[in-house]
Amino acid sequence: MKRIKIIVSYDGTNYCGWQIQPNGITIEEVLNKTISKLIHEDVKVIGASRTDSGVHALGNVAIFDSNTSIPPKRFMFALNQVLPDDIVVTHSEEVPMDWHPRYQESIKTYEYRIQVGEVPDPMRRLDHYFVSYHLDLEAMDKASKYLIGEHDFAGFTKEECQDKNTVRKIYNATWTKVDDSLIFTIQGNGFLYNMVRMIVGMMLQIGRGYYQPKYIKDVLENREKEVTKLTAQPQGLILREISYIDSDTKMGDQR
Length: 255
Hints:
Layout lengths: L1 E9 L16 H13 L6 E2 L8 E11 L8 H6 L6 E9 L10 E11 L12 E3 L5 H8 L4 E4 L14 E12 L2 E8 L6 H13 L7 H8 L14 E8 L5 E3 L3
Parallel strand pairs: 3-10, 5-6
Antiparallel strand pairs: 1-3, 1-4, 2-3, 5-9, 5-10, 7-8, 8-9, 10-11
Helix pairs in contact: 3-4
């Protein structure tokens, strides 16, 4: 028996998120069925991040245990031959049997992309959120700095969040502009259910001048729940990479 780690890139448009659920097909379900059929074993993958419905990934990490004779480093090539086009394994390797993607110390990087313009670009409809109004990028970037550090993010998650501990540490948060795209990048040791999308939803209100940048700090300190209705749409969100502290190699976007 050996444990194989894979890095998975996917377009989440047609999936109900990562985790198996009764109301639709998920990334986890597809991987389980495809790997099981390929190696003729009953496989259950365990993922590092349970991305939401419609959210994309360039570098989610998963493991599974198997007796397969396929060399671990070649497994990605075999699997990509039978996976659907919107799911691709970009790396595979053997890891110790006690290695677990959720319990290793890591840094997760998420990216949220917004297209600003008069009309949406149809080529970016699946990985950008389109807005036709002006956004104050300087105000949004100023607001993002209040996120850095260790905070209780209870005000930026929904009631159905199953995490009892809502404290997370954010290492970096910034907004940048590339042509007509505004890109929010945030790095932390973990994220709560809908946390990034709710932060972006609040940032959009700040960018439109409805709130001052400091309001982010108020939400963190007062654990306000009114931001729930401001959750940004899922298609702009991408899990870019997961870097494991005990590894010299970034487990994510290999570019």
